[in-house]
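[Meeting: bench + compute handoff]

Bench side (C.D.) handed over the final construct sequence. Compute side (W.E.) agreed to return the predicted structure before the next meeting so the bench team could plan truncations. Sequence as handed over:
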Amino acid sequence: MNQGYRWPLVGLHWLTLLLIVAAYVIGSLLEDMTLSPLKLKLFSWHKWVGMTVLFLLLPRLLLRWTERIDHAAGLLPWEARASAAVHGALYLLLLLAPLLGWLHSSASGFPVVWFGVLPLLDLVGKDKALAEIFKELHEGSVNLLVALVVLHAAAALYHQHVRHDGVLARMVPWLRSKS
């Protein structure tokens, strides 16, 4: 199976992964930091990265739906169902995690200004109790997203190194000639 995704979707896939890793690392650093100019700068970066993930979701979905690849090709029936479920959950969490972070920021009274240039609307008014709820939901959605990313990567590696079926090569162009 040599058929792979086109470069725009491949690029957005890997860019999204890098952004998720960056947002997660920055968010993890923020947890134990005391208030400082560095912490405020990192919060801004974290928001910028998260909003970029959110804004890239629509082009990703459009590209994914226009691909002419049978996503279940070469998969066993249970694998095709599991793949569809995990991909659906990943896309849902790519929407929910940044959206919940945006809601948390709005409820905390700290507006999101994308890359320090584009002010985004506050989604809710300032509300400390609501901010805490959105913070917990954001953190939970991010942790679930990261867990599913790890599961997704493990499945791709399983297909590459155990099944040898070329599934990973769809998203890794330099493997296509080897599959």
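W.E. noted at the follow-up: The chain has a mean pLDDT of 93. C.D. will use this when planning the next construct.
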